[in-house]
Amino acid sequence: MFADLLPDGTILQGQHDQYRILGIIGRGGMGAVYRGERLSDGSTWAIKEMRPPIEAAPEEIAENRKLFDQEAQLLQTLDHPNLPKVVDSFEQAGRPTLVMEFVQGKTLEDKQREMNAPFFQRDVLNWGVQIARVLNYLHSQNPPIIFRDMKPPNVMLTPEGIIKLIDFGVARTYKTNKSKDTVAMGSAGYAPPEQYGKGQTDARADIYALGATLLHMLTNLPPVPLQTPKDGSLIKHNQSVTPEMEQVIIRSMAMDREKRFQTMASFEQALLAVDRGVIVPDKRDDPTMMSMPAPVLNNPNPNPNPAPAWGNPNPNPNPAPAWGNPNPAPAWGNNPPNYQQPVPQPAPPSWAPPVQTPAWSPPPQANGPICDQCGRMNKPNARFCAGCGAAIKRAVPKLVITSPRAVWELALTHFPCRIGRRDPAQNHHPEIDLAEHDRGVASRRHAVIEQQGDHHLLIDLGSINGTSINGVPMTAYQPHHLRPGDRIRIGDVEMVFSIE
């Protein structure tokens, strides 16, 4: 049996504030979670305490205390929209306690149990992209954080369709030069072979577990331990599953981790490619090759109502008119970016700024990269030196993004790179999602960064509140050649472009 739970009204003294217990949310094998009120401002938080059963063995209690402390330590160092925010941790009556964001909603396990049927592919894609992004964030930490227990009960879904990962008890940092994990953790069916003590887990363990989680959501059947699904097995249980989606799941759950997606970013790109209707080739891990190619302007059979590569820019049936000419003529010279004009808009205001010709047009790429090892000049797209065989090092464009909530660095590896606010109802997930960062200023489809050769173009997509570059407002649909040090501002968010 459990020791008596904290009664309603109990006041707890934390490190940073006091909290009042309002009621029990739930309890598990080694703890309980309460709904609590922070006394300084009356806000609601989840209060998680370790509370083992009276009959628990000392060794079991010690191991769970270690996991609880590990979760508290990890979450306090992280800041991501799909992770619960931790604001306090302390001990009370000898029990470790964690105060964290109160997440409204249900776990994917609860939703699956209520529905008792497979979910539509479009819903699972929406959840999968969000999960892949937060796992990629964890894997990008130094050292990388491996979640190790991805499964439906550890994923909360809010009423707004936002995913939150919960239960970091068995997450761990990746340790270099270590052949295996000290303890096998995870859940049967979702854990890959290497997580059973046969090797050290890395990011590819989470890739397997996410694939198994999506498999469960798509079939309403728990994954069979250590078994890769067969061709046709998902489609047999769910007619909304496409062959492309099935192949993504099969690849993610390969027994040999060398045959899975090698990074969570490439897994995310594969899911996005399925969402856009693009066939994902087998054994291709170059994320840039998985993005849908944007249509060009010179189409011999133009669609009278073309849609841009990043989706319908005005899902709202009564959108505010975009400023300027909604169908401007190409203004970037003889080398247009790989970009298509938006669908026709409502009539614009009677005034409109004139279409301007940009001062810059990217020059043709004449020379290729020079090898650091032997000094040979190579072809523009060479990955290895033709002289000595060494890998060609390429400069990586990056953004340092600063918002009122956080500062983070993002390597630009996938193009087009969309900037805006996510819209789960439309399965819209921009690569740079400002939903939690800009206080509502950014449009859902605000701007995009395109790549043309070694050059990068920023294009405002007719956003409501506009984009500025180095303090100067941009003209909608007018590409700007990004240079190192350029400062992009959208509301309270500033992004500094660099190439390293």
UniProtKB/TrEMBL annotation:
Compositionally biased residues, Pro residues: 343-364
Pfam families: FHA, Pkinase
Domain FHA: 417-474
CDD domains per the UniProt record, alphabetical: FHA, STKc_PknB_like
The keyword Transferase appears for this protein: yes
Binding site for ATP: 48
Composition-biased stretches (Low complexity): 321-342
Region annotation (Disordered) ranges: 283-364
InterPro entries: FHA_dom, Kinase-like_dom_sf, Prot_kinase_dom, Protein_kinase_ATP_BS, SMAD_FHA_dom_sf
Record-linked SMART domains: FHA, S_TKc
Keywords, comma-separated and alphabetical: ATP-binding, Kinase, Nucleotide-binding, Serine/threonine-protein kinase, Transferase
Protein's UniProt keywords contain Chloroplast: no
Domain (Protein kinase): residue spans on this chain: 19-272
GO function term, MF aspect, one: ATP binding
UniProt protein name: Serine/threonine protein kinase with FHA domain
Species of the source: Herpetosiphon aurantiacus (strain ATCC 23779 / DSM 785 / 114-95)
